[in-house]
Design a protein that fits this description.
The structure holds two protein chains of two kinds.
Chain A (H helix, E strand, L loop, with lengths): L13 H11 L5 H7 L4 H14 L13 H6 L4 H18 L2 H10 L6 H4 L2 H14 L4 H8 L3 H6 L13 H11 L8 H10 L24 E3 L2 E3 L3 H11 L1 H16 L6 H13 L5 H9 L1 H4 L11 H12 L9 H11 L24 H19 L2 H11 L6 H12 L7 H12 L5 H4 L10 H12 L9
Antiparallel strand pairs in A: 1-2
Helix pairs in contact in A: 3-16, 5-19, 8-9, 11-12, 14-15, 15-16, 18-19, 18-20, 21-25, 22-23, 23-25
Chain B lengths: L9 H10 L1 H4 L12 E4 L2 E4 L6 H7 L5 E8 L9 E2 L3 H7 L10 E3 L4 E4 L6 H5 L3 E8 L7 H10 L10 H9 L13 E4 L15 E4 L2 H10 L12 H16 L1 H11 L11 H14 L6 E7 L7 H25 L6 E6 L20 E6 L7 E3 L18 E2 H11 L5 H7 L30 E6 L4 E7 L3 E9 L4 E10 L2 E6 L11 E9 L3 E9 L1
Parallel strand pairs in B: 3-10, 3-11, 7-13, 7-14, 8-9, 8-10
Antiparallel strand pairs in B: 1-2, 4-6, 5-6, 7-12, 11-12, 15-16, 16-19, 17-18, 17-20, 20-21
The chains are: A mainly alpha, B alpha/beta.
Chain lengths: 473, 535
């Protein structure tokens, strides 16, 4: 897999930096772009990864390890705490780049639905694990996530006892978390694996869930052809010894589809898988290889991912970096609006997660995408319309008077670079000209500091967000 | 003079509306479908098959159409309607650019139009044209933007972001967002930045940025062209999204249907205004049912070389208006269509040094349509000699009076709504020869049997106040905003006189908070509806 080495014919430029930042993180703000352009792409990727690694997990809330009694005694219902954590996730999405992007990815891989878990402390502990393991070792990740009380509750590991085995987690461990549907296992493996996973059934009032020898199935099990008195640790060891190629391919394909393109490229995926295996399932080398590759930056892979609601909202907000009236609880707005567009944080549609791509778009969600991005523009406008002017000046300078140049500059900033159709460009220019008489641009009456400029930019942005390409990255 | 104090608290009420934005989950409706579902909190209600109450309301409405023709840039009123009565002053102040007397077509002894506008003379002669003199507002703002904003919002207060038509629609079609009408209420060509059709909740016009775009929608029924996408994954994704946009724009297909449903009239030229009026005519003839159209002719900011530029524009304008009415007449609907030109300001009385004119103030408004019942000049022409410090004429007619008259006497709006649509200043009703007699419309007054009905809020309850002049069988039913019947409030003989009826379906409990609509049926025939809010 070829690393991207900038050359005269294939330079490291604004477009590529934007692509990298939008996909590794959520946005492209002007300052970052300018700074990253002075570095090599490889150094940028290293820096983003290192930042993500160095970032401590979000501080535990006071209730992060409460049991059910403590929640009941607090006098507030669980919804109150769930909301706090969902809002925290949006705060983290905004503040952190690559790590939170990965948390979002992994929360859609090792899915739990918070209403099914129904214990806010469990949800917090799960969230903390995603943050800690997102750049860690995939095998460790799998091992640990299965023991989080959130997952034990969600996929019934907690109900899985020697006397009454429950196959739910055993099945999803293979089908959704490591191998893929029907890929390298048979029903007998699930039955036997489930027996080996028994015992995690002990808790008092839904505090920590711990191992109970008495509910563990001590009999012999045959998993992937290996027989023994296997327990939880053995299941993970055997899985990663026997099926490493399948696991690596499965997980690298999923990463590829999330970060590069909905149609996967076998050669690239297999090259990533090789890296994952040769690094003992450490994830960072895979991330590093992928984001540094020539393939990642390939023109044919640009503007092919449909933004998720979180991408759309957090991305626009961070990209513009505009202020809004601080009486608005932006995280609540994000949370509710993403919900209305089909993405409830910590509650993917089902255990298989959001399928993304075309699933995000229908005639109900599309108008909401327009309305909600418009909502953001409106709150910025209401708070301070001058910031629209400031942005455009920082993009094109104080001297620019050509509407076409201005429209292009804002387009390049707000969209992932694409060739705008000429008729659309003309429309955008007409929108930008707005109420300004035509001759003002030619005869020098208009300049970029005019009072009309904030509204011109605002109107242009409101036009841009309704273009189909705005949904892509 | 009508004082307009009811709107003092408008700003506050708006903030409250915005606070409710989320809960109500309103959809943005630049002709965008919400078809499917709307979220109320966590409940998703399907509205696809719900009875379209707004549509039902609109159906009993009249079939009158208003066409607003915006002359963007500040049209020179003095070279449009030339003051023959004070020709010397006029000509002296404009030595290079005045229209010579021998190049004028006289409308009467006092006023004429340049002969290159003679195409509209026929409309004048047939009593299908009126001119309102000196239209504007006090303390003319000379910025294009600010003045356009004032003309659209009717307020000098920049924090008002709604327009007069938008507020009118918002009051009239209170359930618009939930039960959007089948056809667009209004169509706007030109840039979307103009506030005319903005309400506080949404925009009430299907709005396109250019005549060409409207033509495309009319011809294809789609917003975006999805043919021949580039052969790549990106191309496929864009096609997918374009298809999604096309099927989401609810109004594109009905616009296309109306277009297809009508025949082309030959005679239009190929200017931008020709194209726009030609399309408007196709929509009207095709039965689109939109109430208001706004078209734009750009280029009136004639600071230099005014004579040729203004002539070109005026020829285009007069030709297209003349053709437009011939076309409508040919189809037998010319009496249903009233058109009005307007501009953000007129121009300076005296010419400048570049054979042009600078930004001015008051200017005439031209109205067209057989419905005007005779030609005339309305109001006083402002003096050409008594000018303000900048050399501009005084306003003799407040533009809000023109709007209010159109709403009252052409769209037959409830007087209540007009005071809500007009904010910022006082207004009068002008005698434009229009009227609502015989037209069916929803109005609170002028009904001999039920002249008054209104919601009255008391401390603990909401009552319906009625004043009925004849003992009648009355039924009052409450609907929710989805048009579903909530229940009956009253069904019995109501004696003549004043009544306060609690708006309750269940005698022991108030209605849950929310917006509702009451419908009064008198003697099984005439019905009256209005939306109300339970807090």
């Amino acid at each position: 897999m070829k690393e991207f080495l900038p050359s005269n014919s294939n330079p490291w430029n604004k477009e590529k930096a934007q692509l990298l930042l939008r996909r590794m993180g959520f946005c492209v703000d002007l300052n970052s772009i300018n700074r990253y352009l002075l570095m090599t792409p490889s150094d940028v990727v290293d820096e983003l990864i290192q930042e993500a690694k160095d970032l401590p997990p979000t501080e535990a809330p006071e209730w992060g390890f409460w049991d059910n009694k403590e929640f009941n005694d607090s006098g507030k219902n669980k919804g109150y705490y769930h909301t706090i954590l969902q809002k925290q996730a949006f705060t983290d999405f905004q503040n952190n780049a690559f790590r939170e992007r990965l948390v979002l990815f992994w929360s859609n891989h090792f899915v739990v639905e918070y209403l099914d878990v129904n214990q806010p402390a469990y949800l917090y502990q799960y969230y903390a694990l995603l943050q800690t393991q997102a750049l860690g070792n995939f095998k460790t990740f799998v091992h640990q996530v299965g023991l989080t009380p959130a997952m034990l509750r969600y996929l019934n590991g907690y109900d899985n006892k020697n006397s009454s085995p429950n196959e739910n987690y055993g099945r999803e461990l293979y089908e959704l978390f490591t191998l893929g549907q029907g890929n390298g296992y048979v029903q007998e493996d699930i039955t036997e694996t489930s027996r080996a996973l028994t015992g995690y059934n002990k808790t008092v009032r839904f505090g920590p869930i711990t191992f109970n020898e008495n509910t563990f199935d001590k009999g012999s099990k045959n998993i992937f052809g290996r027989t023994g008195n296997w327990g939880y640790d053995d299941v993970i060891d055997i899985l990663f010894e026997e099926k490493k190629d399948l696991i690596a391919n499965f997980i690298c394909e999923k990463l590829y589809k999330y970060f590069v393109s909905p149609t996967h490229d076998d050669a690239i995926v297999s090259s990533l898988a090789t890296t994952l295996i040769s690094n003992n399932f450490e994830l960072t080398p895979v991330y590093s290889q992928l984001f540094k590759s020539e393939h990642f930056f390939d023109v044919k892979n640009r503007n092919v991912l449909i933004k998720s609601p979180v991408d759309l909202m957090v991305g626009l907000h961070k990209t513009l970096g505009f202020t809004f009236n601080d009486t608005i609880d932006l995280e609540v707005q994000f949370k509710n609006k993403c919900r209305d567009m089909g993405q409830i944080v910590f509650s993917p549609v089902d255990v298989a997660g959001w399928q993304g791509n075309h699933d995000w778009i229908n005639s109900e969600t599309l108008p909401k995408r327009w309305e909600f991005t418009d909502y953001l523009l409106i709150i910025y406008w209401k708070n301070n319309n001058n910031q629209f002017k400031k942005l455009i000046i920082s993009l094109v300078g104080e001297k620019e008077t050509n509407p076409k140049v201005i429209v292009n500059a804002l387009k390049d900033f707000m969209f992932c670079p694409y060739e705008m159709k000429e008729e659309e460009r003309l429309e955008a220019i007409a929108v930008f000209r707005g109420e300004v008489p035509e001759n003002y641009f030619e005869d020098g009456t208009w300049n970029i500091n005019d009072d009309s400029v904030p509204r011109q930019v605002y109107d242009l942005m409101r036009f841009f967000i309704t273009l189909p390409e705005f949904q892509l990255k | 003079m009508k004082k307009n104090s009811a709107n003092k608290d408008k700003g506050k009420a708006h903030d409250e509306e915005h606070a409710q934005w989320d809960r109500r989950g309103f959809l943005k409706t630049l002709g965008v479908a919400g078809a499917g579902a709307i979220s109320f909190g966590s409940n998703t209600l399907s509205v696809v098959d719900s009875q379209m109450l707004t549509t039902a309301l609109a159906e009993v409405d009249n079939d009158r159409v208003l066409v607003l023709i915006r002359l963007k840039g500040g049209n020179d009123g003095l070279n449009t309607i030339v003051p023959i009565y004070d020709f010397d002053t006029y000509a002296n102040k404009r030595p290079k650019i005045h229209i010579p007397q021998n190049s004028l077509v006289k409308l009467n002894d006092d006023f004429g139009i340049p002969d290159y506008m003679k195409k509209i003379e026929g409309l004048w002669k047939n009593g299908a044209m009126k001119v309102v003199h000196g239209v504007g507002y006090e303390n003319q703002n000379l910025s294009h933007f600010k003045s356009s904003e004032i003309w659209a919002s009717t307020s000098e207060d920049s924090s008002v972001t709604s327009g007069w038509m938008g507020r009118y629609f918002e009051e009239k079609y209170m359930d618009y967002l939930i039960n959007p009408p089948k056809n667009p209420l209004a169509i706007q060509v030109g840039n979307g930045g103009n506030l005319v059709f903005n309400g506080d909740l949404t925009t009430y016009a299907f709005s396109v940025s250019s005549p060409e775009r409207l033509k495309k929608v009319a011809e294809s029924g789609t917003i975006f062209d999805t043919s021949n996408p580039p052969d790549s994954l990106h191309g496929n994704q864009v096609s997918f999204l374009r298809e999604a946009v096309n099927s989401t724009y609810r109004y594109a297909s009905v616009i296309h249907e109306a277009y297809d449903n009508s025949k082309e009239y030959s005679g239009y030229g190929d200017s931008s205004i020709d194209l726009q009026l030609r399309l408007v005519s196709r929509f009207i003839k095709g039965g689109l049912g939109s109430k208001v159209y706004m078209v734009t002719l750009n280029g009136f900011d004639t600071h230099a070389n005014q004579p040729t530029r203004h002539e070109t524009l005026m020829i285009q304008l007069s030709n297209s208006i003349n053709t437009f009415y011939a076309d409508l007449k040919n189809h037998g609907v010319d009496d249903k269509v009233l058109s009005m030109t307007f501009s953000e300001f007129g121009r300076r009385v005296a010419e400048n040094g570049s054979s042009g004119t600078d930004h001015g103030s008051a200017a005439p408004i031209m109205l067209f349509g057989p419905c005007l019942n005779g030609n005339s000049f309305v109001g006083e022409h402002p003096s050409l000699s008594t000018l303000d410090k900048k050399g501009n004429m005084a306003t003799s007619t407040n533009f809000r009076s023109v709007y209010a008259t159109l709403l009252t006497d052409w769209l037959c709006a409830d007087p209540d709504l007009i005071s809500k649509a007009m904010i910022g200043s006082e207004y009068n009703l002008l005698g434009l020869g229009l009227g609502c007699n015989g037209e069916q419309f929803l109005k609170l007054t002028n009904d001999p049997i039920l002249p008054i009905h209104a919601v009255v809020y008391s401390k603990n309850d909401i009552d319906l106040y009625l004043n009925i002049n004849k003992s009648s069988q009355v039924e009052i039913v409450i609907y929710d905003l989805l048009g579903r019947k909530i229940g009956t409030v009253f069904k019995n003989i109501l004696t003549s006189g004043k009544h306060n009826l609690p708006l309750r379906v269940d005698p022991y409990n108030k209605l849950p908070s929310g917006q509702y609509i009451y419908k009064i049926e008198v003697d099984g025939s005439s019905t009256y509806s209005k939306a109300f809010l339970v807090k």
